[in-house]
Amino acid sequence: MSGMNFDDLKKMIKKKEIDTVLAVFPDYFGRLLGKRLTGRFFLDNKEFFCCDYLLTAGMEMEPQSGFKMASWEKGYGDYTFVPDMKTLRLIPWLSKTVMVVCDLEHESGEPVVQSP
């Protein structure tokens, strides 16, 4: 099963066939960054967050200068993950794991336009 829906995920977590959800988003280098969540946490929580630092980090994960959205001077905040459930997929190289690609939103609900 490559594609699945939220109901499939709920059933597989309940049957202990899935225990991990990778919630990811692409950065400017094409890397998938995000969070590794337990399946139960993913089902039970409506929101989860990441630091906006992740969109300003270079290849060595050091903050880069020149970003208006976040910097050492301005500070760093959080973005909200918005899972795109159409992208939910089993990950064959990680046991009992699915991945979902997420959009990022500001606390206000506005999309993060800088997110690739």
What does this structure look like?
This protein has two helices and six strands. The protein has 116 residues and is of the alpha+beta class. Strands 1, 2, 3, 4, 5 and 6 form a six-stranded mixed sheet that branches. β1 (20-26) and β2 form a beta hairpin. The longest helix is centred in the first third of the chain and has 9 residues, at 6-14. The mean pLDDT is 83.
Structural class of the helix and strand makeup?
Answer: alpha+beta
- Total strands: 6
Gross geometry = elongated
- Strand portion: 25-35%
Question: Helical element count?
Answer: 2
- Return residue spans where pLDDT drops below 50 for at least 5 consecutive residues: none
User: What is the share of helical residues?
Assistant: 10-25%
What characterizes the major β-sheet?
A: 6 strands, mixed
Along the chain, the helix and strand elements come as HEEHEEEE
Mean pLDDT: 83
- Cα separation of the termini: 27 Å
Could you list some keywords that capture this structure?
2 helices; alpha+beta; six-stranded mixed beta sheet; 116 residues
Topology:
Layout: H1 6-14, E1 20-26, E2 32-38, H2 39-44, E3 49-51, E4 78-83, E5 89-90, E6 97-105
Parallel strand pairs: 1-6
Antiparallel strand pairs: 1-2, 3-4, 4-6, 5-6
Compact description:
With 116 residues, the chain is an alpha+beta fold. The chain has helices at residues 6-14, 39-44; strands at residues 20-26, 32-38, 49-51, 78-83, 89-90, 97-105.
